[in-house]
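REQUEST ID: PR-0412
SUBMITTED BY: lab tech R.K.
PRIORITY: routine
TASK: structure prediction, single protein chain
INPUT:
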Amino acid sequence: MPVRLDPDVPDGPHFEAPKLPSRRVAQLPRPIPHSRPWITPADVRAVVRVLRRGALVQGTEVERLEAEVGAFIGVPPGIAVSSGTAALHLALLGLGIGPGDEVILPSYVCVAPLHAVEYVGATPRLADIDPDTYNVDPADVRRRCTRRTRAIIVPHLFGLPADLDALLRLGVPVIEDCAQAFGARYRSRPVGTFGKVTILSFYATKLFTTGEGGMVLSRDSRLLARIRDLRDYDERRRHAIRFNYKLTDVQAALGRTQLRRLPAMLKRRAAVAARFRRHWAALPVGLPIADSRRTHVYHRFVVACPTAAASAARRLAAFGVTARLPVFQPIHRTLGLDGFRGSEQAFRHALSVPIYPALAPKEAEVVIRALQRTFA
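STATUS: complete
OUTPUT:
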């Protein structure tokens, strides 16, 4: 069924709707947004049911989402929280990490992991990435390890699993950040089942969404109990510093219907990615790597430009396509550090083009032609 854009929200959701007259469609030309969630009537009905019940806060919908997300990858029910950053914060606290400890994280990632490490008073130790995969480089992680290293935050960036074999061999607890890769597999096993603890984000542009939200997952029941205790501060006999990191039933209801469609949404992403690969194989750009050990779920389709990615984004905008640098700024630049060659290369040349389940075939064709015209 065709989709209709909300004309007031350039990066807003797609809603399934009856076919519109072609005359009206012609009156709504607009750039193709970089990201947008796919909202269906089933999503709306699920949220409306909760609203009509008046059960707005954390309740049965949250419990069911926690169980269903865990079951999706084969781990115990998770702990739903208000954001992916909150999930990282609680994961670090659950591991007992605090002042005097060090946590390794990649420089080429959004700033959320840095904030989470700083929240607990630990010292962030940045590692470089492999510019071919955009994931943290295990060899550089090894060089950054010290006697004070207590954890490694491992984002599976853009939907491609990191080199988990090499990272796990280091013997340091791994926090798998599956915010962009839920549903991906590494050696035929779901990501999120390898590390000591896993975190998810359900932000609006993630693989499935609750609007804002996140989750912590683990097979360690004691770790989960500690984190569950920290999520909510109220009605406790023993005082300790806790947080108000709850998810609401309204959000969870949306997440549950989105999760049921996740396999179909991942299939759509894969089909668009395959189409991009076919049409762009001869262009002078680097395409996402293909690796038999790991499945890519294409949260982002990132190409390596031969010239500055920012310049390419401006050219694509002239053709009606919104492209972006996939990471706003590497963390080493935020902290005024240098020496991260892989992260610098990615920052200068990596470009993310639109790919999402709501991308219509005609829109995908526009994206294909725009990149061809940019780099032909």
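NOTES: The domain at 260-375 is CATH 3.90.1150.10 (Aspartate Aminotransferase, domain 1).
REVIEWED BY: pending
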